[in-house]
Amino acid sequence: MQYVITGKVIRGDGYGKKLGFPTVNLTSKTKEFPKTGVYAGMASLDGIEYRAGIVVGPRKKIEAHLIGYNGDAYKKKVTFKINKFLREYKIFSTEEELIIQIKKDLKLC
Model-level pTM greater than 0.90? Predict the structure, then answer.
């Protein structure tokens, strides 16, 4: 099942940007979310579609790294199309481990 989630971009904690993978964080009134995990999908922003690595975290926090996007999306409308489950959500022991995994995830996107 493909999930489509639309909402407004909100400020995150900046952690993805710190790691070198800035994300757009989404607030949405969508009732149906996929299970917590990492997904490959698409994101539509300003009429342009980007391949995206999408994370559905605990408490229905959703964010995505838009491959090739480097603008400021704050307060803009974005639509995520979640296509393929990649892996379970996981807390990593070190930032280095997380960065290695993010690179692997994005190759699959």
Answer: yes
